[in-house]
Amino acid sequence: MTKYVIRGGKPLHGIIDISGAKNAAVAMIPAALLVDGVCRIENIPQISDATLLLRILEQHGASVNTVNKNTMDIDCSDVSRIGAAFDLMRQIRASYYLVGAMLGRFGRAEVSMPGGCDLGVRPIDQHIKGFSAMGAEVEIRNGIIYASVASGRLHGAEIYLDVVSVGATINIMLAAVLADGMTIIENAAREPHIVDVANFLNSMGADVRGAGTNVIKIRGVDKLEGGFYSIIPDQIEAGTYLAAVTAAGGEVLIRNIIPKHLECITAKLVEMGVSIEDYDDSILIKRNKPLLKANIKTMPYPGFPTDMHPQVAVGLCLARGISVITEGIWDNRYRYVDELRRMGAKIQVDGKIAVIEGVPGLTGAPVRACDLRAGAALVIAGLCAEGLTEVEEVYHIERGYENFVAKLQGVGADIVSVAVSESPVSSAIAI
Ligand code: EPU
Fold first, then answer.
1. Does an H or E element contain 338, and which?
2. Which of 12, 64, 100, 378 is close enough to 175 for a disulfide, judged by CB 3.0 to 4.6 Å?
3. CATH H-level superfamily of 22-230
4. What is the pLDDT of residue 116?
5. Which residue's alpha carbon is nearest to atom 27 within ligand 1?
6. Thinking of the domain 2-19+233-428, which architecture would CATH place it in?
7. Are 400 and 44 in contact (CB under 8 A)?
């Protein structure tokens, strides 16, 4: 177990290179199950969620070879085992993609109910609605999802999603690429990683059209063949560093990004008083004046992403005036608020709404990363706070950020990762 010890108050200066998108990687790794041959996937972030999924595939009989730290050759040609690695599946949300991929390839799936961040109720009814429309029988018993199709092959269907769901959109897409006939997903999610997963599948021989719009059409093919694909940069990782500079101040060039994917975030940061310069594959962010209040409502893409709300909330805690955040996706995204209050933030939460009254500064405190994005937010708060902040339970952060501490150190942050048994004061002095 480790924790991060941060001495705050230093603006950030330098360059940060962004890794591959977590939420694309965690869909593409299970999607490799659909492919009869070797998938070479580049730009896989080194995060524990990706490592876990690769181990789950191996336990099903896949061969996974490391080409370099971010490139893997995954060969699922010989996978025949179904119903393995339930204990690993339970630890991660994206294990639900194994249902779509296994159903598509084998006509049968046995997958443990998913884990992941506790953001409130996280139903999978829309995934099941999609699989059922395609001819599968789906049953949940003893924490395991059992799905099968009597004929051995799913058939195409027209599926209207009741809610815009990233997970259901991708999962139905995975199930549909090898189905018999055409599947149409209406009211589909439009996040950049949905387009990326569709491009990945197409590069292996699938026929997916319309990803990035709210109607996706998938014509089933008989077989997907091996190929090569490079994952897009992580929109939320890049947004997190933009939020860090916004809150802590300084000037940082964020490289290896797709600026278009970040517009929903940078538009809000500009309103808060930062300067943003877009280049082809990088953004220069500068913050050298006091922050301004702003209101945020989280929505599906291209709205402001829920996965960015805790990180941007830290800047709002330090902005002049009163800001309001309305969380439009999850019921339980405000667990970080109690931790920020320990650092002097003034936030009132009522249901899905948080009212933030800006304060002149935060003060360091021991805090707990209660989920992935909450953890990132608390690190950002530590970077701004006066004195020492210790962030515990950082395994949540390491599920989704590659080299988080090293990247922040690279722009001058005073942060170290220490074993929990070490004294925070002596570790900080050693910085
Ligand atoms: N929903 C349903 N039924 C379903 C599926 C979803 O009612 O069958 C509801 C959810 O309760 C929620 C809304 O629909 O209110 C959106 O959920 P969605 O399915 O889009 O979320 P997800 O696929 O479980 C992914 C990301 C999350 C991110 C959300 C929203 C992955 C592995 N996770 O979750 O990412 O918050 O989309 O953008 O892709 C994170 O990276 O920190 C993270 C939590």
1. helix 336-342
2. 100
3. Enolpyruvate transferase domain (3.65.10.10)
4. 61
5. 307
6. Alpha-beta prism (3.65)
7. no
Distance CA 263, CA 76 (A): 37
Predicted local distance difference test score (pLDDT) of residue 114: 77
From the CA of 189, give the closest atom in ligand 1. Answer: 20
CA–CA dist 313, 336 (Å, integer): 10
Q: Which long-range contacts (CB under 8 A, 24 or more apart) does 86-91 make?
A: 86/111, 86/112, 86/143, 86/144, 87/112, 88/52, 88/55, 88/56, 88/59, 89/56, 89/114, 89/115, 90/114, 90/115, 90/143, 91/52, 91/115
Do the domains at 2-19+233-428 and 22-230 have one common CATH topology? yes
Q: Looking at ligand 1, which residue's alpha carbon is closest to its atom 32?
A: 94
Is the Cβ–Cβ distance between 142 and 70 less than 8 Å?
no
Global pTM reads 0.95
- Say how far apart CA 268 and CA 265 lie, in whole Å: 6
**What per-residue confidence (pLDDT) applies to 427?**
38
135 C-alpha vs ligand 1 centroid, how far in Å? 24
Question: SS3 of 175, please?
Answer: helix
Which residue's CA lies nearest to atom 12 of ligand 1? 329
Give the Cα separation of 353 and 348 in Å (integer): 8
Residue ranges of alpha helices (H) inside 177-308 are 192-203, 235-248, 263-271
Q: Which residues are catalytic?
A: 117
Low-confidence spans in the chain with pLDDT less than 50: 425-431
Cα separation, 15 vs 36, in Å, equals 40
- What's the DSSP call for residue 151? T
User: CB under 6 Å to ligand 1: residues?
Assistant: 23, 26, 93-94, 117, 121-127, 163, 165-168, 189, 306-307, 329-330, 372-373, 400
Q: Residue 282 in 3-state DSSP?
A: strand
Q: How many CB atoms lie within 10 A of CB 207?
A: 14
Domain spans of the chain? 2-19+233-428, 22-230
Atom of ligand 1 nearest to the CA of 121: 11
**Which pLDDT score is estimated for 391?**
98
